[in-house]
Amino acid sequence: MSAGNDVPGRLALSIGRLSRRLRAAGGGLSHGLLSALATIGKQGPIRLADLAQRELVSAPSATRLVTELEARGLVSRAVDPADGRAFLIEATEAGIETIIQARSARAELVADLFGQLDRADAAALAAALPALEAMAAEPWPPER
Fold this sequence. Notes:
mainly alpha, about 10% strand
């Protein structure tokens, strides 16, 4: 297959390059920290094990993420009233503001990039968006 016809490879490369640009607009947080913070903000209060499962990381990795977010004042932990051995993690006001700022910066970056496209390319991307959203919503790893 010629390089021009390798749609999956070209798409993966393009998404990777765009992802690096978006990470740079993350407000000083790594991709992992921002992703965990966004999950906590959306799903919280959330148990550490549930966060690890949603973020597709190990429990020790989730613990490190939460510890760093807590040190930055972006999340807080409280004892789970249903199980005194577990903690619930919740985004603080500063954490919610960080999520909003990062999303805004990323949206602005994408809007700038989108604005550089000609009308046909912009329309093609807009038409492809439902398919990309469906791909992104698929559970990972795939259930087989």
